[in-house]
Design brief:
It contains 7 helices and 16 strands. A hairpin with a 2-residue loop joins strand 1 and strand 2. The chain has about 300 residues and is of the alpha/beta class. It has one domain: Aldolase class I (TIM Barrel), CATH 3.20.20. It is globular. The two termini are about 25 Å apart. An 8-stranded parallel sheet has the order 3-16-15-10-9-8-7-4, with helices on one face. A 4-stranded antiparallel sheet has the order 5-6-14-11, with no helix packed on it.
């Protein structure tokens, strides 16, 4: 049996397969399909300092090769999450990564400080949130603001942090370099790509928010390219995601330089996906007589 264990910032994962934030809740909805103990980690839906109601409906639309969502990071807030979701996840032999969102730097710091006192393993920081104090420009769209928020979070966090990068930028490597320079332990990439759909019969936007985040197989080639670019610019580990629908997709990300992978939108199509990717990677390694998964990480130069 090939070794599939990986290590990110001192945290040991039994395999490199995770869930992508916002597509798996905290795993409760998927319990009858997937044994969470078989996954490297469960990455939770975004958690804020207070409950967020999310955006008005409709907030999901199907598009060619994927979906648009403008959920608006609806969540019950960090206190409910700590009381309800962490005890649920602790039942399983998997790592717990909590996605953190906020509308100001202070919001993020409040959540990070509270989660630092819990038994979670890592924090994934969603910097695609609009910064209300800076005219709603996303935190992750400017290298200087990425450096600033990363450094402030790193100063208060007792857990390793993963900065989740937005693809909605001119040069994603600049953002990756800024996050690394400020002390991020790893990167998650990519988040969704901004898109729009118009309902021609109703002559209006398909989403009440007008725009939404595009995810699904159509974005995979863009995500693989961005992972490859960043893997060749930074030394910290990358968790690759964006349109993974099978083990072959996951392996592609790892060959581009990702240490781990996260399955997202396609969980909605196939709730067994994460488990199938785990076994598919094991089958690939066995068929190709590869003893250790590290042999394929970043093997394409």
């Amino acid at each position: 049996m090939a070794n599939t264990a990986i290590n990110i910032a001192g945290v040991e994962f039994k395999n490199p397969v995770m869930t992508a934030s916002g597509t798996f809740g905290s795993g409760m909805e998927y319990g009858e399909f997937v044994d969470l103990s078989n996954l490297g980690a469960v990455v939770t839906k975004g958690v804020a300092n207070v409950a967020w109601p999310g955006n008005p409906t409709p907030r999901v639309a199907e598009v060619y090769g994927g979906m648009l969502n403008a959920i608006g990071l609806q969540n019950p807030g960090v206190d409910v999450f700590i009381e309800r979701d962490i005890p649920f996840l602790k039942q399983f032999d998997t790592k717990i990564i909590v996605n953190v969102c906020g509308k100001s730097v202070e919001d993020y710091l409040e959540v990070v400080e509270k989660l630092s006192e819990t038994e979670v393993d890592m924090l994934e920081i969603n910097i695609s949130c609009p910064n209300v104090k800076e005219g709603a420009i996303a935190f992750g769209q400017c290298a200087d603001s990425v450096f600033d928020i990363t450094k402030k979070i790193k100063n208060v966090s007792k857990k390793p942090i993963i900065m989740k990068l937005s693809p909605n930028v001119t040069d994603i490597t600049e953002i990756a370099i800024a996050a690394e320079a400020a002390g991020s332990d790893a990167l998650s990439m990519i988040n969704t790509i901004t898109g729009m759909k118009i309902d021609i019969n109703r002559r209006t936007f398909a989403l009440a928010n007008k725009t939404g985040g595009m995810s699904g197989p159509a974005i995979k080639p863009i995500a693989v390219r961005m992972v490859y670019q960043c893997a060749n610019k930074v030394k910290i580990p990358i968790i690759g995601m964006g349109g993974i629908s099978c083990a072959e997709d996951a392996i592609e990300f790892m060959m581009a330089g990702a240490t781990a992978v996260a399955c997202g939108a396609m969980n909605f199509v196939n709730p067994y996906l994460t488990q199938e990717v785990v076994t598919g990677i094991e089958d690939y390694l066995r068929r190709n007589k590869i003893d250790d998964i590290h042999e394929i990480i970043g093997c394409v130069k």
